[in-house]
Design brief:
Radius of gyration: 29 Å
Number of strands: 3
Number of helices: 3
Strand order of the largest sheet: 1-3-2
Helix content: 40-55%
Largest sheet: 3 strands, antiparallel
Order of helices and strands: HHEHEE
């Protein structure tokens, strides 16, 4: 019985110490989400989206990719931007006769 009282006293003391600890302001999950968001923004900060570029009719994907790259080069030339390294990606579902989002990535 003595051990039981001693254990209960120690248990209550530990509970009081735990309650007195400062509460965290942000969980590690929140911090991880913030870091991931910053990383995504950094990765996308130099992306541009061109809307309404035309789809070439009855061409291969390679032909379309080449035409997209030519379009980006023409735009860069007009803006007097030289030696731009980029990769192009088409966004959205293909619909004949409708231009759609075009996303060159730096």
């Amino acid at each position: 019985m003595y051990y039981s009282r001693d254990l209960r006293t120690r248990e209550k003391a530990l509970e009081q110490k735990i309650l007195a600890l400062p509460q965290p302001t942000a969980s590690s999950m929140d911090i991880e989400c913030i870091i991931q968001e910053i990383s995504e923004r950094e990765k996308r900060k130099s992306n541009i989206i061109i809307f309404g570029s035309n789809e070439l009719s009855s061409t291969t994907k390679a032909d379309q990719t080449s035409a997209d790259a030519d379009l980006v080069r023409d735009i860069c030339s007009t803006l007097e931007l030289d030696n731009i390294d980029f990769k192009t990606t088409r966004l959205g579902k293909y619909e004949p006769g409708k231009g759609y989002l075009f996303h060159p990535r730096a």
